[in-house]
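Running log. JK asked me to keep both predictions on one page so they can be read side by side. First protein, sequence followed by its tokens:
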Amino acid sequence: MSSDFQNGVPDTEHDGLIGLLPSAARPYALLARFDRPIGWWLLFWPCAWGVALAGGAIERWDLLLWLLLGAIAMRGAGCVYNDIVDRDLDRQVARTRSRPVASGVISLRAAWIWLALLCLVGLIVWLQINGTARLVALGSLALVAAYPFMKRITWWPQAWLGLVFSWGALVGWLAIATEFHWAMVLLYLGTVFWVIGYDTIYALQDREDDALVGIRSSALRLGDNVRFGVLAFYLTALASWGAAFWMLRPQWLALAALGPLGLHLLWQVMTLKSADGGDALAKFRSNRFAGLLMFLACLVLGQAG
């Protein structure tokens, strides 16, 4: 096992719980990115927002726990699938060449088996939600399957990731309120733009390597206008969320609930150092806190309704 693989990548938390696992299990945990919990938090938060905005966060706290488990499992499954598809590209990028499949630590066959096991956990979680939410959840599978190929055919794979990572907002809402509401759509739309914004920040780490191997990203497309682009994405997200809140409770106080989140996103943009990969990673990871602020806003509005 190479030293690069052992040490992980800059955003790993390899020395935590992962370090306590038997040595044979660690590569599988790293393949599913269990050492990088930011990913499952970013997948979970939209689910929690949907539940909270629909008014079910308190009564259905157990559903939130199921959705968190589902986010951990399915984010892991998505990472395994992504690494299977991208194994050749990953070998050409400094930050990713030590990934278990790309480096040969885990065989292709073993990776497919691990993917199936993670999907089995996802299936168990899927069975915990109602029929309407189940059908909507199934709709995300095609988006997930296509995502790893987007970086090869479009400059905006971050937009496709937005469609995928925001899907939980629809599932969470419909798991509580089974009827269609435009507020649900606006919540989803805003989340898509939030994801594009934070993943553009994340992509700043790889701009040089991506350009060399032909991987496309919004960070490369925006060039020197990254900060302006991320600001535009975040403002669109806030406007969409504000419209959703207004539809449910047409009072200025409802919009004020988004104030702390708006300030946090503005801080990200104003202090972003686009040439500093470490700063980009820190700003990206701060969206875990942004997700909490949005959840609290949805919780207040959902319970007030």
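And the second, directly underneath as requested:
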Amino acid sequence: MHWSPKLLMSLFSNDLAIDLGTANSLVFCKGRGIVVSEPSIVAVNQKTGRVEAVGQEAKNMLGRTPGNIKAIRPMKDGVIADFEHTERMLDAFIKRAHNRSFGVRPRIVIGVPSEITQVEKRAVHDSAMKAKATEVFLVEQSMMAAIGAGLPITEPTGNMVVDIGGGTTDVAVISMAGVVYSKSVRVAGNEMDEAVTQYIKRKYNLLIGERTAEEIKIEIGSAFPLEEEMTREIKGRDLVEGIPKTITISDEEIREALAETVSTIVETVRVALEHTPPELAADIVDRGIVLTGGGALLRNLDKRLREETGLPISIADDPLTSVVMGTGKVLMDFDLLRKVALQ
């Protein structure tokens, strides 16, 4: 049997597409699909400086660790806040993606927020290079989300995508494989969790952890009134008496807690529509807006945006994986990658 160089290349192809997110990181491997989908958290032993766990294992330790083990989120607002631990996290995810650590030097495509500075771009690039990549390409998350959601981005028609992640909400109008307008605000899922924590603390003098806040948001959070009322029991620490306590909270209260964050996202979409050239705006009136990212799963956010903009709103099939699937498609189409890669 004759082994062509191309076939050999495809056999040993270990190129990766990475959605390096504030809350979760996903890794797509050529030919295998999504191979890593884990929280962007690193657990570090502060006495020795050793990384004890990365990803889901580290998240399970949140709020439950002895004093010397600290769970760190190295990404903040979609960018690297802690260079050293981002590098270790990337390294761990790349090794997991390949099930082996020796000799693997992949080409890597990484999605970044649209309004990222040169310094922040350099940090992502360097982290990936130190995690043993041969080449690193940076691409805009909003563009990747549009590709992952199946939008026809190379056609001369306007598409609008709203990608609500953990640290940032990216709104972009895309046409002919280019971003015509983009706006990134550092208000997204994590801000919602924080708003829930603060609301419960203010209203009930009850302190809850960030994992509980996220669970409440997922279970009963909404952006527009629901048809049926939902309630949930919450356990936390009473700030007055200092003892554990349980209360019941309703979806209406959580909607009130999330109101400001949701309004910021709605306003960002509004501003984007105002800045869209008229021809493309006409396309968006017909095609509507596509929501991606974990935040797209917030109940009735699509209804709220429909009310506020009067446009058709749809949610991507799997909003959590849109960015990494788009990045994966670009990884396999070098011509498209050349068009969309950031300099």
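Observation for JK regarding the second prediction: The mean pLDDT is 88.
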